[in-house]
Specification:
511 residues, Jelly Rolls, 3 domains, six-stranded antiparallel sheet, zinc-finger, Znf_RING, immunity, metal-binding, E3 ubiquitin/ISG15 ligase TRIM25-like
Length: 511
């Protein structure tokens, strides 16, 4: 049992393995360690597989054709062993096996100090064949007289060629899988950068919303303070004015009081009578008039509440506008134009964000994705899920479309946006009239744009496409809606016509 356990113990990792399948040198290792050692040997100085245990033992095989040590110097190290000749050869003595046709069928292997592992124990003949049924190496006698004579037996070189062909196919499959994995990994890494960039933009938008809302709250608080302060100041002003009138009446009455008191103290009857008769009517009138007695003013709470309510509604409206802007910014997916798809009459900007219709064809290389008849271009990005929102600035004679990325691009028929089953477009003609197109069906719209900013909303799962005009305060004015069922990824497409109208389109950067 101890010997069996030792035979099934890997000499590298010291783990037990189920099936002992020794290497040609006789040492046994678990398949995982053999595979790792084989992988590490690729590109190493040895440039071939070395048994880990043999490598530790570092056995040098002497050339059998060189003089023995003591008979003319030390023997050279062997570089190959010939299994037909059953000798190990140095570089010099190996040359006949490499150049002479007579040795072309001899099987050369790495230097072997002990051929017993390559020799049949029953017939003492070197293995030159392989039994596929028993998965064993066999000699000529085994094949002719032994238990393998009815089995599928092949020459070692044929088995080697077959296995090399299988390994070549597996290697190609592995390389293809590695390339696919690297491509998927690169796409995920690129998408990671996209998410990070989007996250940074989203954080900026949320931060901007927070600043805007904070400013709105501060403005609301200031406005409410101003309203109450204004009402309070008006009440105080009315109190001051009415108090002044009361003080004036009081001062006049006090003056009459003093005058009457001084007349009563007068002892000259003639002077008293004269004074009283000369001012009696006015005196009586002044005393008969009532004292000005205004009602105590009260704060006009109704007006205060009305003003507060108006300010509150303004605050809510502005808050909703900020939230709508944030929603659009968060739904806005990055877009860039694909220069390889652009018609030669379209000039694409360096940042791939705008296109202009030119009069003279540009010198562009041929490309299978390029539109060759209609002056159109599509975006690099395509979408097969989610909800998205974009804003564009368009002038002149333009066509804005949501289209399958597989839209036909060569020739005239069926390649214009809206003139096939795979695109839905909104067109503004030279007379500013709007038209919706799909599958060659045209629908004239009664609406007419007052500005040049267009919004495109896409809900892929719902199959909804909405074109709108971005009006004042970023309000959306619906222009047309398409309802469909998407079965392929979609992208945005733009067509520009009439260069004399300065036809152009730009993707608005949402920041």
């Amino acid at each position: 049992m101890g010997s069996l356990e030792e035979e099934h113990t890997c000499q590298v990792c010291r783990d037990l393995f189920s099936r002992a399948h020794p290497l040609p040198c006789g040492h046994s290792f678990c398949p995982a360690c053999v595979r790792e050692t084989w992988s590490q040997s690729r590109g190493s100085r040895a440039e071939r597989f070395l048994c880990p245990q043999c490598q530790e033992e570092d056995v040098v095989v002497a050339c059998d054709c060189c003089p023995a040590e003591g008979d003319g110097g030390p023997a050279s190290a062997a570089v190959k062993t010939c299994l037909r000749c059953e000798v190990s050869l140095c570089q010099e003595h190996l040359q006949p096996h490499l150049v002479c046709p007579a040795y072309s069928t001899h099987l050369l292997v790495e230097p072997l100090g002990d051929l017993s592992r390559r020799r049949c124990s029953d017939h003492q003949e070197v293995f030159r064949y392989y039994c596929a049924d028993d998965q064993e190496y066999v000699c000529t006698d085994c094949m002719l007289e032994g238990s393998h004579k009815q089995h599928r037996v092949k020459r070692l070189r044929k088995v080697e060629e077959d296995y090399r062909g299988m390994l070549q196919m597996l290697l190609q499959k592995a390389e293809d899988k590695v390339q696919l994995g690297e491509k998927i990994l690169q796409e995920h890494q690129n998408f990671t950068h996209t998410i990070e960039d989007s996250s940074t933009a989203d954080e900026y938008q949320v931060e901007r919303l927070g600043v805007a809302l904070q400013a709105q709250v501060e403005e609301l608080v200031v406005a409410l303070r101003e309203v109450t302060k204004h009402e309070r100041e008006q009440a105080i002003e009315r109190l001051k004015e009415e108090s002044g009138r009361v003080r004036g009446d009081l001062k006049l009455t006090e003056s009459i009081q003093r005058y009457l008191g001084s007349l009563l103290e007068e002892r000259d009857p003639f002077l008293l009578i004269w004074a009283f008769q000369s001012d009696d009517s006015k005196l009586v009138a002044d005393l008969s008039s009532p004292v000005f007695s205004p009602k105590l003013p009260s704060l006009d709470k109704k007006r205060v509440l009305e003003n507060v309510e108006n300010k509150y509604h303004e605050f809510i409206s502005e808050t909703l506008r900020c939230l709508v802007e944030l929603k659009r910014d968060l739904l806005s997916s990055p877009l860039t134009l694909d220069p390889n798809s652009a018609h030669p009459l379209l000039k694409i900007s360096d940042d791939l964000k705008s296109a202009v219709r030119v009069k003279t064809r540009l010198s562009l290389s041929a490309h299978p994705d390029r539109f060759d008849h209609w002056s159109q271009v599509v975006t690099i990005q395509s979408f097969s899920s989610g909800t998205h929102y974009w804003e564009l600035e368009a002038e002149g004679f333009w066509d804005i479309a949501v289209t399958y990325h597989s839209v036909p691009r060569k020739g005239k028929d069926g390649t214009a946006f809206g003139c096939n089953e795979v695109s839905w477009s909104l067109t503004q003609q030279h007379d500013k009239k709007l038209t919706a197109w799909h599958n060659r069906k045209k629908k004239r719209l009664s609406a007419q744009m007052s500005g040049n900013r267009v919004a495109v909303s896409l809900d892929y799962a719902a199959g909804s496409i909405t074109f709108s005009e971005v009006g004042p305060s970023s309000t959306l004015i619906p222009l047309h809606n398409f309802s469909t069922t998407f079965v392929q990824p979609v992208c945005l497409g733009f067509g520009l016509y009439k260069p004399e109208l300065n036809s152009r389109v730009s993707i608005v950067k949402k920041m």
